[in-house]
Recover the amino acids of this structure.
C-alpha cells in the first residue's frame, strides 16, 4: 500500500512537471527564438541599408536557424550557451569551398547584442539586432533555370573593351558627380583619343524596387538616364553593374527574378555595358548552374535590341572560358579580385597562359581591371602591368582617379604603341615562350605578320635576359621597335640579350 501510494505521488508529480513545461513552452517561446535584424546605414549616405537577418530557433540549450547577410546565407551548425551568452557557428557552401562564420552574443532586454568574425584572429564586428516580422529578409524561392542554348553573338568589342571602372579606386564612394568628372577627364586628357570609351559604374548605385518591381537608384545617382546622356555627350559610353542573385557583393539590390525588366531599364537609361557579378547568386545556385543563370541575362540583353557589352564576373569558376561566349558573354573574369600590389597583379597576370586559346574577337579573358596609378606599385611595375595586360589581349579598364593622376601615369595608360598590341585586330592572346627562374618571355602574334615580344623580369634585381631566336620560335630578319622607349632597335637574327630592370619589362614589336 505504502509503495503504491509513493508511486502515485511520483507519477502525479512527474505529470505535473511535464505539464508545467509544456504550458510554459507553449506560452512563452525560448527568448532567442525569432527573426532578428541588424540594419546599418550603408556608408556615403546613399539612403540604403546593409542588413543581417538571424532567423533563430531556441530549444533549451539548442539553437538552430539561418543567418543571411549581404551576399551570404549560412545555416547554424553548432552552438554553445544560451540567451545570457552564446556562440553560434554557421556555415555555407560557396562553390566547392565551405565558408564559416562565428557569432557571439547575448540578449539584453529585447536586443540581441552580437559580435561576429570569420576567423578567430579577425577583429570582431559589433552589432545590435532587434526583432523583425517573421519572413522579413527570407531568401526568395529558387527560380527554375532555362535549358541551355547558344546565345547569338552581339557583335560588340571585336577588340578588348577599353575604359574605366569605379571599383578599384572608389568602391562604395562613387556617385553621379564623380562619374561626370571622370568622364570629363577621360574626354579631355588624351585617353579618349587613345581608345578608352567605357565609363563603368561598379557596385553600390542600387536602391530597392518600386511597386512594379522596377530597379531604383540610390541617392548617389539621382538620375541615371541624365547621367548616361551626359557621358554620351562626351562621346563616351556608360556601363553599369549588377548580380544575378538577390544581392550584389556589397549587399545592394541584385537582379534576381527581374532579369528582363532590368535589362529593359538599362536600355531605357542608355546603358552600354553590364558587369554581372555572381555574388548573391551563390545563396541559391551551385557553380554548375552558372551557365544557365548567366544565359538568362545574355538573352535579356539581346532582347532589348540595344548594343550592351556583357561582362561575366564569377571569378573564373567552372572554367568560364569554355562556356562564357555561349551564354552571350563578351568577356569573363578569370580570377578573384585584383589588388594594387605587385604580388596580386603578377599572380593574376602570369597565370593566364593556358587560357590563350579561348580569347577571340568579341570574347575575351578578363584578368580584372587595371590598378595603374592607384599608388601602391612603382611606375616600373605599372608598366609591367600595362604590358602584360596588352600581351594578354585583356580589357583595359583603368581603375584609378583620372582627375588627379601624374603625367607619368597618364603616359603609361595612353602609350599608343602598347595599346595597339592590346587592340590588335587578330585578337590572339599572347603566351609564355621561354622562362628561366623569375625571367620570362611572352610573344603575341599580331595582324600584318608582326609579333609582340615582352621580356619580363620578376626578380628583385636587374637581369640580362638572353634568348635564342629558336626559343621564341622566330626565324629570319625582323625590324624591331621598343614600345616603351619608342625607338627602333636592331633585332639580331640568332640570339638577343636584353637588360630588364627589377620588376620591369622590355616590350618590342617585330615586323618584317
Ligand atoms: C566583386 C567583384 C569586384 C567588384 C565588387 C563589388 O568582388 O569581383 O570586381 O565588382 O564585387 O562589390
Amino acid at each position: 500500500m505504502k509503495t503504491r501510494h509513493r508511486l502515485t505521488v511520483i507519477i502525479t508529480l512527474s505529470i505535473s512537471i511535464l505539464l508545467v513545461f509544456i504550458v510554459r513552452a507553449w506560452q512563452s517561446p525560448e527568448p532567442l527564438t525569432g527573426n532578428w535584424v541588424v540594419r546599418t546605414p550603408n556608408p556615403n549616405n546613399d539612403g540604403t541599408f546593409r542588413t543581417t537577418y538571424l532567423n533563430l530557433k531556441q530549444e533549451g540549450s539548442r539553437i538552430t536557424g539561418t543567418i543571411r547577410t549581404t551576399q551570404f546565407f549560412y545555416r547554424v551548425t553548432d552552438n554553445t550557451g544560451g540567451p545570457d551568452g552564446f556562440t553560434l557557428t554557421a556555415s555555407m557552401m560557396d562553390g566547392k569551398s565551405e565558408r564559416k562564420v562565428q557569432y557571439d552574443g547575448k540578449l539584453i532586454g529585447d536586443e540581441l547584442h552580437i559580435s561576429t568574425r570569420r576567423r578567430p584572429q579577425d577583429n570582431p564586428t559589433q552589432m545590435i539586432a532587434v526583432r523583425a516580422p517573421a519572413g522579413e529578409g527570407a531568401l526568395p524561392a529558387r527560380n527554375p533555370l532555362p535549358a541551355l542554348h547558344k546565345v547569338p553573338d552581339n557583335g560588340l568589342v571585336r577588340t578588348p573593351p577599353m575604359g574605366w571602372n569605379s571599383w578599384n579606386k572608389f568602391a562604395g564612394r562613387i556617385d553621379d558627380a564623380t562619374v561626370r568628372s571622370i568622364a570629363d577627364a577621360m574626354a579631355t586628357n588624351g585617353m579618349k583619343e587613345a581608345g578608352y570609351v567605357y565609363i563603368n559604374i561598379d557596385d553600390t548605385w542600387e536602391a530597392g524596387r518600386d511597386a512594379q518591381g522596377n530597379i531604383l537608384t540610390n541617392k548617389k545617382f539621382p538620375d541615371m538616364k541624365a547621367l548616361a546622356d551626359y557621358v554620351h555627350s562626351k562621346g563616351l559610353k556608360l556601363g553599369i553593374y549588377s548580380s544575378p542573385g538577390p544581392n550584389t557583393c556589397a549587399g545592394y539590390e541584385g537582379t534576381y527574378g527581374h532579369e528582363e525588366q532590368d535589362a529593359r531599364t538599362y536600355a531605357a537609361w542608355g546603358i552600354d555595358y553590364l558587369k554581372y557579378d555572381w555574388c548573391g547568386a551563390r545563396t541559391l545556385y551551385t557553380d554548375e548552374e552558372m551557365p544557365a543563370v548567366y544565359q538568362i541575362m545574355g538573352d535579356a540583353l539581346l532582347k532589348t535590341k540595344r548594343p550592351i557589352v556583357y561582362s561575366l564576373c564569377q571569378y573564373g569558376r567552372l572554367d568560364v572560358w569554355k562556356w562564357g561566349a555561349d551564354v552571350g558573354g563578351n568577356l569573363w573574369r578569370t580570377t578573384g579580385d585584383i589588388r594594387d600590389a605587385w604580388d596580386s597583379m603578377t599572380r593574376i597576370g602570369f597565370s593566364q597562359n593556358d587560357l590563350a586559346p579561348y580569347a577571340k574577337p568579341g570574347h575575351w579573358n578578363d584578368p580584372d581591371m587595371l590598378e595603374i596609378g592607384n599608388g601602391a606599385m612603382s611606375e616600373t611595375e605599372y608598366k609591367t602591368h600595362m604590358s602584360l595586360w596588352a600581351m594578354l589581349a585583356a580589357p583595359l579598364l583603368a581603375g584609378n582617379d583620372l582627375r588627379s593622376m601624374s603625367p607619368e601615369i597618364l603616359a603609361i595608360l595612353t602609350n599608343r604603341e602598347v595599346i595597339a598590341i592590346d587592340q590588335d585586330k587578330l585578337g590572339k592572346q599572347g603566351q609564355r615562350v621561354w622562362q628561366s627562374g623569375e625571367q620570362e618571355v611572352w610573344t603575341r602574334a599580331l595582324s600584318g605578320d608582326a609579333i609582340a615580344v615582352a621580356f619580363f623580369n620578376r626578380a628583385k634585381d636587374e637581369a640580362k635576359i638572353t634568348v635564342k631566336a629558336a626559343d621564341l620560335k622566330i626565324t629570319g630578319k625582323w625590324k624591331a621597335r621598343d614600345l616603351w622607349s619608342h625607338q627602333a632597335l636592331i633585332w639580331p637574327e640568332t640570339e638577343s640579350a636584353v637588360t630588364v630592370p627589377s620588376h620591369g619589362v622590355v616590350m618590342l614589336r617585330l615586323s618584317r
About this structure: The longest strand covers residues 97-108. The two ends are 117 Å apart (CA to CA).
